[in-house]
């Protein structure tokens, strides 16, 4: 490139000298030639600058690549020692996790000194077992987001490795990141964003799933059942739907410090009365497990039961967000609820080398690539933002209904264990003594409930 420009410049200069000696118009021609020479010089200078910039950019890329390779080589040169790593995951992802771990170990020979064992322990049991005996618990384990505060308080969760924090926050859904955080510290790796509920229905029976009253009427007319759990996790669909609040604040140690609750209100009474009306329908059945449901045409359930419902409804399988309902005050409300996720935690380790291996493995098991592969294998909805944009994920009817419902829900934060016990008792009264109770008695029950759950944070 430089040789061509020099040749052009020399040719232009020689032409200028020849034209200058040609007589009458020499002065004007010389001026033109001088301008041409200046323009050529400018082009040469610009081209040289551009070439220099390209060379500098190439050098920067090469330098970055070299630094990255050096970092990888340095990591491979570290002696991580030997040891055993135990992983707890839900039964339906044991095989998938074993295959993924094997891939990880093959691609990372620097960790060859570790023997990794995958065991089937569900998210709920994993959290309880870890809190009971941290030492005997798994090194890496899956759990539901509502257990985070309890696990932190029990010393069962190590903070996420600092070098992984920024990537986790930028690559995953905001609600999943919030669920993995206590105070201002990130304690776990988001694995899914599919922990919520929506409506499954048989479209040959329920032709209009838009209202709760309509669904119940259509099920009654067909002699079919409508299933919904009215206990703590599900009953907020009514209370949050009417605008009530029930959330807890916790400190960095996982201790509950305050509770914001306004169930003892007019909107709380509207929600409670709607629960009572729903439970009084002859089509209503308490429950949320499709595997245990019988003769049903609609059920409020989660993505984990999609295959069971598909088998039951066949070609009439359909999904939708939760319906609206008309309250005792005549106003229309959209049913709400919690949205949540599954998280992967790492237990604190005395051996820093082992901790580094656990962090690397947890990061890999929750990466975009693995989250998408896990969806394809068992249908778990990813929390990774790029994985959520995959065509197969976006075409999933259950995940699409859940995604639509998430617009009307709140991220599930941390709740004390006794909150769920009290919420279950409230649900029992809805199907029992509340069926004949006065509004005054119902309001008193809400006052007692609110005082109790607020007291759990004091």
Features:
458 residues; 5-stranded mixed sheet; 51% helix; 3 domains; D-Maltodextrin-Binding Protein, domain 2; globular; 18 strands; alpha/beta
Describe the protein.
This protein has 458 residues and is α/β, with parallel strands linked by helices. It has three domains: 2-76; 82-194 and 341-389, D-Maltodextrin-Binding Protein, domain 2; 198-336 and 416-455, D-Maltodextrin-Binding Protein, domain 2 (3-Layer(aba) Sandwich), CATH 3.40.190. It contains 18 helices and 18 strands. It has helices spanning 2-20, 26-77, 94-107, 123-132, 148-153, 162-171, 174-179, 212-222, 232-239, 266-279, 306-313, 352-365, 368-378, 385-388, 391-394, 397-406, 417-431, 439-455; strands at 83-89, 114-120, 140-144, 181-182, 185-186, 189-190, 198-202, 225-228, 246-250, 256-261, 284-286, 296-301, 317-320, 324-326, 332-334, 338-339, 342-346, 410-411. The strands form six sheets. Strands 2-1-3-17-6 form a five-stranded mixed beta sheet. A five-stranded mixed beta sheet has the order 11-8-12-7-13, sandwiched between helices. The chain has a two-stranded antiparallel sheet with strand order 4-5. The longest helix is centred in the first third of the chain and has 52 residues, at 26-77. It is globular and about 75 Å long. It starts with a helix and ends with a helix. Mean pLDDT is 87; it is low at 1-37.
Q: Briefly, what is this?
A:
The protein is an alpha/beta fold and 458 residues long.
